Amino acid sequence: MPFKPADNPKCPKCGKSVYAAEERVAGGLKWHKTCFKCGMCNKSLDSTNCTEHDGEIYCKNCHGRKFGPKGYGFGGGAGCLSMDAGAQFQENAN
Q1: In this structure, are residues 32 and 13 in contact, taking their beta carbons and an 8 Å threshold?
Q2: What is the per-residue pLDDT across 69-86, written as a single tens digit (0 to 9) for each?
Q3: Domains parsed from the chain with CATH numbers
Q4: How many whole angstroms separate alpha carbon 93 and alpha carbon 33?
Q5: 66 pLDDT exceeds 70?
Q6: Which class for 36: exposed (0-12), middle (13-18), buried (19 or more C-beta within 10 A)?
Q7: In whole angstroms, what is the distance from residue 36 CA to residue 38 CA?
Q8: How far apart are alpha carbons 49 and 59 in whole angstroms?
Q9: Number of helical H runs and strand E runs in the chain
Q10: How far is 48 from 11, CA to CA, in rounded Å?
Q11: Which DSSP category does 79 fall into?
Q12: Could you give the CA distance from residue 13 to residue 1 in angstroms, rounded to a whole number?
């Protein structure tokens, strides 16, 4: 019988095989330690500050900015008020 290597899961970010010694698990997927970064700010993540949305991982701050409630009253005080309309978070900004 010929040798058949184990079928390792692929990292969603880079598409390469993820081995047990280097894996991080989030959202039911296995990631490389070096690929386990926020999809917006590129900050390194760990199990305490990681949030998954549609196959992409984010830090809790960026996830709240991109997918959280919008509008007046959700900022938490005058320090959070801004004239930014959030155009950088829109998928199809026209």
Answers
A1: yes
A2: 776 555 555 555 566 666
A3: 8-67 (2.10.110.10)
A4: 32
A5: yes
A6: buried
A7: 7
A8: 5
A9: 1, 4
A10: 20
A11: G
A12: 34
